[in-house]
Amino acid sequence: MAPSPFDPFNQEPVAVRKKNNGPPIKFLVPLIYAPVLPLIRLSLRHKPVLRDRLFTAVLAGAFAHGFYLISDLYDAESK
User: Fold this and answer.
1) Is 7:17 a contact under the CB 8 Å cutoff?
2) Is the pTM of this model over 0.70?
3) Helices (DSSP H) in the chain: which residue ranges?
4) Mean pLDDT calculated for residue range 16-42
5) C-beta separation of 25 from 65 below 8 A
6) Do the beta carbons of residue 30 and residue 62 sit within 8 Å?
7) What was the pLDDT predicted at 45?
8) CA nearest neighbour of 4 among 12, 35, 29
9) pLDDT at residue 51 above 90?
10) Looking at the predicted structure, is the pLDDT value of residue 29 above 90?
11) Which residues contact 33 (CB under 8 A, 6 or more apart)?
12) Greatest extent of the chain over all pairs of C-alpha atoms, in Å
């Protein structure tokens, strides 16, 4: 007879689960940099060189973050 899962005398180790307290931060990052892009364009209207450089840097960071997420997802699925 197999022991019941609620048997207090069952001495088999129980797998410890990692607590998942909300969504992963890496998927919430676009909620931060998406509104920043228009704010850069609007707030630095009188400094076009700085505006364009900062906008390009934030946009490149957004694409790099997206590439990281895609490569991380595909890597996790292939294993």
Assistant:
1) no
2) no
3) 25-28, 30-43, 48-78
4) 81
5) no
6) yes
7) 95
8) 12
9) yes
10) no
11) 58, 61, 62, 65
12) 80
b (16+ CB within 10 A) / e for 3-41: eeeeeeeeeeeeeeeeeeeeeeeeeebeeeeeeeeeebe
d(CA 41, CA 46): 10
> Is the Cα torsion angle 39, 41, 44, 49 positive or negative in sign?
positive
| pLDDT score for 11 | 63
> Cα dist. 78→63, 70, 72, 73 in Å?
22, 12, 10, 9
The pLDDT of residue 78: 56
Q: Is 1 helix (H, G, I), strand (E, B) or coil?
A: coil
- Please give the span between the terminal C-alpha atoms of the chain, in angstroms, as a whole number: 37
Short-list 77, 78, 39, CA closest to 58:
39
* b/e burial code for range 67-76 (CB count within 10 A of at least 16 → b): eeeeeeeeee
Q: What is the mean pLDDT of the chain?
A: 80
